[in-house]
Amino acid sequence: MMAQLSQFRLKGLLILAIVIFAVPLFITNPFHYGLATQIALIAGAVVGLNLLVGFAGQISLGHAGFFGLGAYFSAITTSTYGWSAIPALVVGALGVAIIAWVVGRPILRLKGHYLSMATLAVGFIIAIILNNEREITGGPDGMPVVPFDVFGWELSPFGQYTLFGMEISGDLAWYLFAGVILLVAVWLAQNLIDSPIGRALRSVHGSEVAASVVGVNTAKYKSLVFVISAVYASVMGALYAHYQGFVTPAIAGFDFSIILITMVVLGGMGSTIGVIIGAVVLELLPQLLADFQDMEMVLFGLILMLTMIFMPKGLLPTAANLLAKRRKKSAGGDV
């Protein structure tokens, strides 16, 4: 069974890679490249959140706080103190990991709506700090961020680069970079899911009491996956800040936390590729509904509501179940 799941996840990773590298064949507009890059970076954070929500069964309504911490740490250290982007990203992720471990140990003892309120409070605290520390963060007005650099080589959406002898634009280069980062994030998540840690997380999701009875240290694994999901958010937040070239406290706000958790639920909790689809749908829907002006948010909410009513397990799991039923019915008819 585990071998079949591993093969299924490998196929999903290959399909994702094909889609990512095929997208440039269909778009040439810088705006569309920008949207695709943004989707890839946010989807990476959602993959990490899915480990916490979809596999460990722990809710987080303040995860944008960790996204914002990673973004601001990289922005401040590179733009104000002259750090290179890679050390800033790594040190920021380590700092977020420590914060998540310290915060997660007590709040993950809570369950249900108590846990939701606690994680929500963590997100609010981070957003308030980023808003109030004007001298460091720029306050509500935000702050500019220098381009992402790797050993002195700057990656900017406005530059021109050479890849395998071909001249490519900066927006395409950033999209390919973000796509590769997303693939790595998915690969790491899938390896974690198939490891003993992943099996422990699924047991915690199923029943913490039963998991404890068979020797699983539930507090340890819940804290561990909370830290891992926070690191995912921090890394993607840092990259997002460098790509946008500007960052504001809204990136750590409650609204963005709700968007992240909605992407997980919409795509299908426990489905790595599913949550990426959720991120794509939730990012593209406002663009597709923009022509409806005043009715945009009404239609947006209506679509999400109908999706949750008729596809409660999420987009990808529901589609997979329907396909499996059709195949089973077809096989039965052949017999």
TrEMBL record:
Keyword vocabulary terms for this entry: Cell membrane, Membrane, Transmembrane, Transmembrane helix
UniProt cross-references to CDD domains, sorted A to Z: TM_PBP1_LivM_like
Main localisation: membrane
Pfam families: BPD_transp_2
Membrane association type: Multi-pass membrane protein
TM helices/strands, residue ranges: 12-27, 33-52, 81-102, 114-130, 172-193, 224-243, 258-285, 297-316
Gene Ontology terms for molecular function: branched-chain amino acid transmembrane transporter activity
Domain of life: Bacteria
Keyword RNA-binding: no
Protein name: Branched-chain amino acid ABC transporter permease
Source organism per UniProt: Marinobacter adhaerens
